[in-house]
Amino acid sequence: MLARHDIGSFAATSAPEGFDLEDFEQAGLRGVERKFTPKDTIFTPGDPDDQLYFLVSGTIRLYKIYGDYKEATTALLKENGIFGKLSLVEGRWQDVFAEAVTDVRVVSVQKSSLEWAIKREPEFAMKLFSSLSERLRQSDEVIESLLHREVSSRLATLLINLGDRFGEGNGSGLLLDVRLTHQDLANMIASTREAVSKVMSEFQREGSIEVRNRKIVILERSSLAEYASGPSGLGYTGAGSLPAS
Questions:
Q1: How many Å apart are CA 139 and CA 97, to the nearest integer?
Q2: What is the mean pLDDT of residues 162-170?
Q3: Between 20 and 30 A from 140 (CA), which of 42, 76, 132, 154?
Q4: Three-class secondary structure of residue 97 per DSSP
Q5: Domain co-membership, 91 together with 162
Q6: CB–CB of 80/20 below 8 Å?
Q7: Which residue has the higher pLDDT, 7 or 59?
Q8: What distance lies between CA 75 and its chain's CA centroid?
Q9: What is the number of domains present in the chain?
Q10: Is the pLDDT of residue 126 over 60?
């Protein structure tokens, strides 16, 4: 059976409240736990799609390669999140990279076992499908946030979302508890490192954010919100075409 672990509270966009490893255990599912260190690859495109993954602790990112070997981050997930292809049908292949951002612990469960549990445990099935639906909703929001918007608007939207998910209050602001380079941020908004660096400098000069020990601190969320709600348009720079889904 799955080992029970002490798990922190759920992030705003992680699995629905109440969904954790105990649900897998109560449904009679067996899983395999693995540990990864930063930059370790959990799976790559072409790997068998026969498992669903539960992130016990740490942070991972999902990304694709497009164009001239450019990376596009499609999701950044914190503990208690579910990842892997959302289809529960076996016999297909992964189509994204999953990489550890921090030290992580992951439990994988065979999809054949999930199918068995879904048929026999309706409450578990509803919780699982709710979590998968949340992942789809997040993906839709990411795509919508990129469409025809200036770099400053897209970056402000991203920082607000990251603050909601990874932010920790530290008295003077909201500290993003994950280290992200300007290239990492660019990969998340289909832009370039140069364009992101320019906008980040503007945000810092205006006092909206600051950087401490290579971590971003949001000082004025309302200021970022103004950028995020700014006018859309095709005149933005540094973005190029959107990555293929």
A1: 16
A2: 86
A3: 42
A4: strand
A5: no
A6: yes
A7: 59
A8: 3
A9: 2
A10: yes
Residue 218 lies in a domain: yes
CA 245/CA 235 separation, integer angstroms: 23
Q: Given the structure tokens 């999902």, which residue do they identify? A: 62
Distance (Å, rounded) from C-alpha 162 to C-alpha 203?
Answer: 16
Please check the confidence at residue 243 and state whether its pLDDT lies above 50.
no
- At 226 the three-state DSSP class reads helix
* 113 & 186 share domain: no
Residues 5/56, Cβ–Cβ less than 8 Å: yes
Mark which of 144, 164, 186 sits at the end of a domain.
144
With respect to residue 101, please indicate whether it lies within any of the assigned structural domains. yes
* Beta strand 97-100 pairing with 41-43: antiparallel
List the one residue out of 136, 62, 132 whose CA is nearest residue 104: 62
- Residue 240 pLDDT > 80: no
Chain position carrying tokens 């600051």: 210
Could you list the residue range(s) of the whole structural domain that residue 38 is in?
Answer: 21-144
Burial string for 69-105 (b: 16+ CB within 10 Å, else e) reads eebbbbbbbbbbbbbbbeebeeeeebebbbbbbbebb
Residues 134 and 57 placed together within one structural domain of the fold:
yes
**In terms of domains, do 34 and 129 share one?**
yes
pTM equals: 0.70
CATH number, position 125 = 2.60.120.10
DSSP letter, residue 108: E
Confidence of residue 140 (pLDDT cuts 50, 70, 90): low
> Predicted confidence band at 238 (pLDDT cuts at 50, 70, 90)?
very low
Q: What percent of the chain has pLDDT over 70?
A: 78
Whether 114 and 161 share a structural domain: no
